# Entry
Amino acid sequence: MIVSFSVSNFRSFHAEETFSLVASRRLSGIHDHHAVPIPNSDEKVLRAAVIYGANGAGKSNLFNAFRYVRRIALRSSKKNTGTRREPFHFTQDANEPSSFDLQFIANEKLYRFGFKVDDAKVTEEWLVEVIGTRERIIYERITNDEGNVIIESKELKNNGGKLAALVTIGGPQNQSFLATINVTLDASDLGDELSGVIGWFRTTLGMISPEATFASLGQKLTEDASFLKFAGDFLKASYTGIDHLKPQKIEITEAELIAMLPNKDLIDKLRDGVSENEGEIGVLRLPNGCNLVVENSGAKHYYKVTIQASHQPQAGNFFQLDLKEESDGTRRLLELIPALHKLQNENAVFFIDEVDRSMHPMLVWKFLDFFLKSRDESQCQIIVTTHESNLLDFDLLRRDEIWFAEKDQNLATRLYSLMDFKVRKDLEIKKHYLQGRFGAIPFLGNLNNLQLEEA
# Structure
């Protein structure tokens, strides 16, 4: 779970801004099941957060900052490609390092992972375990003026083997040491702690952008009966008009597969995704929603997977529609259902940018309500950015779960919580937000001058 995140000099963030999901003690007794204990602490962390702001205020930049941290934590960087950071431009000190610091819970421990980067290199990096009021350093890293990566870690050096050798070598200056470990060593070389930290970034933390698609949706619907039922039942209960989903998996020849792909690069991508190891599966999703699948079961087999939605306008009569014929809102909801299903069954964290994209306000409300009521006190978490004011409801959320993003006079994003305001428990916060009491709304200029004069 994410406990807090600080960022500076990245995109629209200039001075350091902190997004905290530590539950306020002042709200004890209000939606207590929305918060779970933080290890080795008397504090709790919230299971949900909703972030509001005008267009261009920086909500999506917070999402992008998280995604950048995830990339730096896991992925290697080619030599001389720099760090691909995006500093705040409206200042004279844009060349100063960008800084990121993330506190998160993995395997019942609280960790801090952070780093500073300039255009060329990771200048500093740290990974520590937070134990109450003290910190246990797992490793610290600097890149010195000569470009040498220096790792300080008594713990990792004492472990011996390949990991200790990497601590001595340091790794490339433009990628994190955590990424160097991830792309260089096998899980057996890492030990449980580092495997757990890397696994949190790789599989626990999910990022869903407004245009994101779940690449293996069709494959999962055909292979996972519980997910197929969950997805169909959720769509039916959401009054999308769909009674159930009907995926179909048909084996095809390699020639037929090639004929369906628009270019050779996609063919190579699909083939390369499956090694010679038996049991490997590669999935490629086409723009029309169809999945092309390669499975290695001793020999390579090729499949086309399609999804149809079954409608029942009359008793006893079902009609099938290809998924591409469904509404944008229905398709968007279906792309989010895998996240909701995972949150039902595993400890997972999802950050969804523009959760309300193409979806009805009541459906967005029920989506969040379903999550909050479904796994009380589990280590699952959902963070969303939105314009949907119907979520501003004390029956749904606590005050400390509501956040705002707003730009100041220097065009820099500020983050703040509803806890910064004195509000009554019976206050109609939606009305007051739209009236501008909490900021984070657009202020439109005079558009009358843009209207065409009547002839």
Summary: The chain is about 30% helix and 30% strand. The chain has a mean pLDDT of 90.
